[in-house]
Structures are given as C-alpha cells and as structure tokens.
C-alpha cells in the first residue's frame, strides 16, 4: 500500500500576472470522481478525525496553511504542512487524519469516489482494531 506523500504541481505565469497551477492526467494518483473544499474552520477546531475504507484523496491548501496528522495502517504517524497551492498531499485508504486549519485557510480535496457514508471510519477505536487485524 502506498504511503501518504506530497505531490508538486507545475505553475505557469508570473508574480506580476499571477499563476495557473495545473493538476491533470498522469500527475494524479487516481481518477477524480468528486471535488470539494472546506473554508471558515475555526483555528481551535481539529477537523477530519476519520479514515476511509476505499477512498483516496489529494488534499491541497488553496489558501493559507493546513497541518495534517496522518496515521497509516501500520500505525506510523506522519505530519504534513500544506502552505503552497502548488503542493498536494496524497492520502491513501485506511489512513486516519486529523486536520488543523490556520487563519483563513481553504482546503480543496480531490476524491477517488463519490460521497458514501459507509466508506467512513469515524471512530478511532474502530480504526485501530481494523488496521491491527
């Protein structure tokens, strides 16, 4: 199983005119079935707090700073800081995630499947039992 990892996306443009950031085709680790974004999360809130059975995600901080704690099925914890819209975090299935938003941060997520509540693991104890076998 792949580990969570950062992906860099090319940007074209200039400081004077702005930049276009491109994520397409072979750059992405999966075909995208859903896109959503999250904004206005209080900085005191820890968001996420779940894993997915099958869903793969690519998470981008399109504005501001987002910090993620990702626990993999082998119980290793990885911390990532997203603060550039030219970088995204790939999160494979069966990874627990906790997300902290900086002031004004906007998170965009590209997802491998459409929304399915049955795919969510919202209880950390259930996640721990599932990945421990």
From TrEMBL:
**Which Pfam families does this UniProt record tie to the protein?**
FdtA
Q: Where is the Sugar 3,4-ketoisomerase QdtA cupin domain?
A: 6-131
Q: Which domain of life is it from?
A: Bacteria
Q: Is the Isomerase keyword given for this protein?
A: yes
Write the record's keywords in alphabetical order, separated by commas. Isomerase
What GO MF terms are annotated? isomerase activity
The name on file for this protein is: dTDP-6-deoxy-3,4-keto-hexulose isomerase
């Amino acid at each position: 199983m792949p580990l969570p990892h950062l992906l860099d996306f090319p940007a074209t443009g200039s400081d004077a005119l702005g930049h276009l950031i491109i994520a397409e085709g072979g750059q992405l680790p999966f075909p995208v079935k859903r896109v959503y974004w999250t904004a206005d999360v209080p900085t005191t809130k820890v968001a996420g707090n779940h894993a997915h059975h099958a869903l793969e995600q690519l998470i981008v901080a399109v504005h501001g700073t987002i910090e993620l704690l990702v626990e993999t099925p082998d119980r290793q914890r990885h911390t990532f800081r997203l603060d550039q819209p030219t970088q995204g975090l790939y999160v494979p299935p069966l990874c627990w995630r906790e997300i902290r938003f900086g002031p004004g941060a906007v998170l965009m997520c590209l997802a491998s499947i459409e929304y399915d509540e049955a795919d969510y693991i919202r209880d950390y104890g259930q996640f721990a039992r599932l990945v421990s076998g």
